[in-house]
Specification:
Blueprint: E1 2-6, H1 29-41, E2 47-51, E3 80-82, E4 87-91, E5 94-98, H2 104-110, H3 119-129, E6 158-161, E7 167-172, E8 175-180, H4 188-192, E9 201-205, E10 212-216
Parallel strand pairs: 1-2, 2-3, 5-6, 6-8
Antiparallel strand pairs: 4-5, 7-8, 9-10
GO molecular function, one term: DNA binding
Family: Belongs to the DNA polymerase delta/II small subunit family.
InterPro entries: DNA_pol_a/d/e_bsu, DNA_pol_delta/II_ssu, Metallo-depent_PP-like
Length: about 220
């Protein structure tokens, strides 16, 4: 079986940053999800799709985030499973921890020398700390819950993140860390923030060997 993992953001959303509405082709959030659903329907039905939300999606900002609610996903194909952010998956015996990665924004300011250009280093810091979250009270809102879902336990074989729109890969003590980048070219907001995305690249990982391969569609 083949799997397609999408660690959020599934859509651009609306009102996420100043002036975003000037860049949007689709200004209706329901239509954004419908167009995304059509893209998923173009994929072979044998591929099992797992999709989690990010901070541009329609769910609450505070982490952990719930799965995208059904009123937005009516046109999604039957082979698509919607999960929370973060989410621990078991794919043929391989543990995959999927996290959108908003805390990277905060960790860049806390870790000396950290950069959006090198997301692999930040994933290593998450693994060292056994924690996906940044400290409470920073830019990434954290929901108060009885169980801390942002603790990395158990350790996965693969840590999958996104958010920064830049591909990155690392290995730390047997864990493969992958930041999957984006399918969107540089926005005006990213240009203003001096962020240079690496769009249209996909990571293919052999679940037996955990060897990654990058496919460049740009």
């Amino acid at each position: 079986a083949g799997y397609l993992l999408i660690a959020g953001d599934l859509v651009d959303g609306i009102g996420i940053y100043p002036g975003q509405e000037n860049e949007l082709t689709i200004k209706n959030i329901y239509e954004q999800y419908d167009v995304f659903a059509e893209m998923l329907r173009d994929l072979p039905s044998r591929v099992r799709i797992v999709a989690a939300p990010g901070n541009h999606d329609v769910v609450r900002m505070a982490e952990p985030q719930p799965a995208i609610p059904p009123e937005f996903t009516g046109r999604f194909p039957a082979n698509c499973t919607l999960v929370e952010n973060p989410c621990l998956l078991n794919l043929q015996g391989v543990r995959v921890l999927m996290y959108h990665g908003r805390s990277i924004d905060d960790m860049i300011g806390l870790i000396p020398g950290a950069s959006y250009e090198r997301p692999g280093e930040i994933m290593e810091e998450m693994l060292k700390r056994r924690l996906l979250a940044s400290p409470y009270g920073m830019r990434t809102p954290i929901a108060a819950m009885k169980t801390d879902r942002l603790v990395i336990d158990p350790l996965p074989e693969i840590l999958l993140t996104g958010h920064v729109h830049i591909c990155g890969i690392t290995r730390y003590r047997g864990v493969l860390g992958v930041n999957t980048g984006t399918w969107q070219s540089q926005t005006a907001f990213q240009k203003q923030m001096n962020i240079h995305p690496t769009p249209a690249r996909a990571f293919v990982i052999d679940l037996q060997t955990l060897q990654p391969e990058v496919m460049d569609f740009s």
